[in-house]
Design goal:
CATH class of chain B: Alpha Beta
Helix content of chain A: under 10%
CATH topology of the largest domain in chain A: Double-stranded beta-helix
CATH superfamily of chain B: Mitochondrial biogenesis AIM24
Number of strands of chain A: 17
Largest interface: A-B, 34 and 30 residues
Order of helices and strands of chain A: EEEEEHEEEEEEEEEEHHEE
Largest sheet of chain B: 12 strands, antiparallel
Oligomer: heterodimer
Helix content of chain B: 10-25%
Distance between the termini of chain A: 32 Å
CATH superfamily of the largest domain in chain A: Mitochondrial biogenesis AIM24
Number of domains of chain A: 2
Largest sheet of chain A: 13 strands, mixed
Strand content of chain B: over 45%
CATH architecture of the largest domain in chain A: 4-Layer Sandwich
Chain lengths: ~210, ~220
């Protein structure tokens, strides 16, 4: 199958690992995730120009501002991320938090803010969000405990807290533990989600 | 004539009848029938081609399989794509070549020849070296990619822009242009992240993968 401008899907997955975005107005994408495009598109860093009027409401993230580029113009844009699975989320009046390194693109109608948990971005409002994951995304209803490496994000839930296994805590407190070094299984720390909402999990760690 | 088919999206099968085929070293998975495998130094090309490879370090290490039977190939869990050639020239990253046979002429091309200085920048920016393997004639080439290889058509009317790190190869009558989007913001570290792009114009097909090669340090 050879694609051209007409046969490329309209805002849909090209295959599991790439997504074709039909850009009509503006879109905010993560740097370096463009793999190809047809048409007249411009990639602008977020700095001092008129474009900032579009994103001033949308981007509320001083720490991550440099990760994003604004795409303007008209054309079809193919996104890819290290051969990871890509999915698009149509958000409506949403409150979704996603691992920052997994965000590929979002529409400027969404408000993007930093989560209180470092390394995560929270999206508020209505619009489109495109994110990658290692393996297909699995949806889980809270309450649940999740490995921090495997988490992709969570929706309509309060920020999680850390839960440690008792064995680990015992080691930390005991003198023997500190002398012999901590026995870490790599599974002793989990993100603890409480309340009502949905958790997004990757099928593999990291 | 060797026949190429896909067992699944990551495995290639080639049927041989007293014929020979060249395939990436270490990619043979299994075979039936009576087939001999030898290291092929010439890789289906001439002595001059071999000399070129030695000089350019663009190593195409292939095994030659000869005989009658069926061989299955796969490599590193990567996706396999069969590209048919009907008299066109295919330019492909040497690392991405899985299998081909002697119906096709192979060569190594200096990318710098294609676009002068721009060609050199292209090689440096994409971290792929300055040389590319070429195939011409009529037949098939099997290539490997991270995730499915995506084929995109280029026409006179519709040029395409591609990220150099995601580029696999191209075929047909295409002109490559190296486009930079460097402005004053680049100097203060405010790059758009998509500053280097390949622009393909003409008539043909470009192959890309949804994976961005890390630049060599």
């Amino acid at each position: 199958m050879i694609y051209n401008y007409e046969t490329l899907p309209d805002n849909d997955n090209l295959n599991n690992y790439s997504y074709c975005l039909n850009v009509v107005n503006q879109m905010i994408i993560t740097k370096g995730k463009m793999i190809a495009y047809y048409g007249m598109l411009r990639f602008e860093a977020i700095g001092v120009n008129l474009l900032d009027l579009i994103v001033q409401e949308s981007l509320n993230t001083p720490r991550y501002g440099n990760n994003f580029v604004v795409v303007t113009g008209q054309g079809k844009l193919v996104l890819g991320d290290r051969a990871c699975e890509i999915a698009s989320y149509d958000l409506e009046d949403a409150h979704l938090t996603v691992k920052a390194s997994r965000v590929l693109a979002f529409s400027p109608s969404l408000i993007c803010q930093e989560s209180t948990l470092a390394g995560y971005l929270t999206f508020l409002g209505t619009g489109q969000l495109i994110a990658s994951s290692n393996g297909p995304v699995v949806f889980l209803e809270a309450p649940a405990k999740v490995d921090p490496d495997a988490i992709l994000g969570w929706a309509d839930l309060p920020s999680p807290s850390y839960h440690y296994d008792y064995e680990y805590i015992k080691d930390v407190f005991s003198a023997v533990g500190s002398l012999a070094g901590l026995k870490k299984s790599g599974e002793e720390r989990q993100l603890n989600f409480t309340g009502k909402g949905t958790i997004l999990i990757q099928s593999s760690e990291q | 004539m060797p026949t190429y088919s896909l067992v699944n999206y990551k495995m290639l099968a080639i049927a041989l009848a007293k014929e020979e085929i060249f395939a990436k070293r270490g990619s043979m998975i299994c075979y039936t029938g009576k087939i001999n495998f030898t290291r092929s130094y010439l890789a289906g090309g001439g002595v001059q081609n071999l000399a070129m490879r030695e000089v350019t370090n663009e190593e195409l290490i292939v095994m030659r399989a000869r005989g009658t039977g069926k061989i299955c190939y796969g490599y590193d869990g990567k996706y396999v794509t069969i590209i048919p050639l009907r008299g066109e020239m295919l330019y492909i990253e040497t690392d991405s070549v899985l299998a081909y046979d002697s119906r096709l002429q192979t060569g190594t091309i200096f990318q710098g020849n294609q676009g002068g200085v721009q060609g050199i920048i292209k090689g440096v920016a994409s971290g792929q070296g300055l040389f590319t393997t070429t195939f011409s004639g009529s037949g098939e080439v099997a290539i490997i990619s991270q995730g499915d290889a995506i084929a995109l058509e280029v026409t006179q009317k519709e040029p395409i822009f591609v990220d150099p790190n995601a580029y696999l190869g191209h075929k047909g009558m295409l002109t490559t242009q190296f486009v930079t989007d460097v402005n004053w913001k680049t100097l203060i570290g405010q790059t758009s992240g998509e500053s280097y792009q390949f622009k393909f114009t003409g008539q043909g097909t470009v192959y890309i993968q949804a994976y961005e090669r890390e630049k060599k340090p």
